[in-house]
């Protein structure tokens, strides 16, 4: 199975949507995860329609809608869903609260889960899946928190990305813990100080992660996020590396 490659538009927040499309096309990546903070704000259906059409004209896929909706907060999911529908996204990325599993009271976890069940149900009617951002400072900071939430919400999926605070072995264990509900992958190379490096510097670790990911059921798009120095040159270098890795992983799956 071919593994799709792409970039999340927040990699270049200062670029216009047209410039984001242009550099993704230059890099030879398959598609874009459009961020809901700058490029396609929730509720701005006109922008979503224009971005969808521009992607279509340039042969760029819409990999997902990267919203900043946080389940459990006083936020409305409907504008997010309507924007994803207009954009043509098949997946909406959402955030699991504002606390890690160890810090979140049980009643708050249940409230987040209840909200997500409603959101997943609403999205399903439009043929869209909902997937959690796998991120520190939320319920998905640990595999235990992610598993607890996924167990509460049938039909919910989860992204994955490497947490630089834990070991490589622990990262692989995270992938295994959510394997049956794994969605897309945010790809970047950070050190323990949260500094971005060229993707190639993490090749041994990433190739092992991708072997684990390729063994998981379903489709898993590889989406570049942070690049060294935020530069276009380094992005293009990373994109070439990612395309090579995706081709290798596709032969495994």
Automatic annotation (TrEMBL):
Would the keyword Isomerase turn up in this protein's UniProt record? yes
Recorded hits in InterPro entries, A to Z, give:
IolE/XylAMocC-like, Xyl_isomerase-like_sf, Xyl_isomerase-like_TIM-brl
For this protein, the record's SUPFAM superfamilies field holds:
Xylose isomerase-like (SSF51658)
Keywords annotated in UniProt:
Isomerase
Question: What GO molecular functions are on record for this protein?
Answer: isomerase activity
Top-level taxon: Bacteria
User: What is an example of a Pfam family matching this protein?
Assistant: AP_endonuc_2
- Domain Xylose isomerase-like TIM barrel: residue ranges: 22-195
**The protein, known as:** Sugar phosphate isomerase/epimerase
Q: Which organism is it from?
A: Candidatus Egerieisoma faecipullorum
């Amino acid at each position: 199975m071919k593994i799709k490659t792409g970039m999340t538009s927040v990699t270049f927040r200062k670029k216009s949507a047209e410039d984001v499309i242009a550099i993704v096309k230059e890099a030879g990546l398959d598609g874009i995860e459009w961020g809901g903070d700058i490029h396609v704000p929730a509720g701005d259906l006109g922008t979503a329609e224009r971005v969808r059409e521009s992607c279509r004209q340039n042969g760029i896929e819409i990999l997902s809608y990267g919203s900043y909706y946080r389940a459990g907060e006083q936020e409305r999911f409907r504008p997010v869903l309507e924007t994803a529908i207009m954009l043509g996204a098949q997946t909406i990325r959402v955030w699991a609260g504002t606390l890690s599993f160890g810090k979140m009271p049980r009643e708050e976890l249940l409230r987040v889960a209840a909200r997500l069940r409603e959101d997943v149900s609403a999205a399903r009617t439009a043929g869209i899946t909902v997937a959690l951002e796998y991120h520190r400072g939320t319920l998905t900071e640990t595999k235990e928190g992610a598993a607890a939430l996924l167990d509460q919400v049938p039909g919910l999926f989860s992204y994955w990305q490497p947490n630089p605070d834990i070991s490589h072995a622990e990262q692989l264990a995270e992938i295994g813990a959510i394997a049956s509900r794994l969605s897309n992958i945010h790809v970047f190379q950070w050190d323990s100080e949260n500094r971005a490096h060229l993707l190639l510097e993490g090749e041994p670790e990433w190739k092992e992660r991708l072997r684990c990911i390729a063994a998981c059921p379903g489709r898993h798009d590889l989406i570049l996020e942070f690049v060294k120095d935020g530069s276009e040159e380094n992005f293009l270098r990373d994109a070439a590396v990612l395309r090579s890795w995706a081709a290798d992983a596709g032969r495994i799956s």
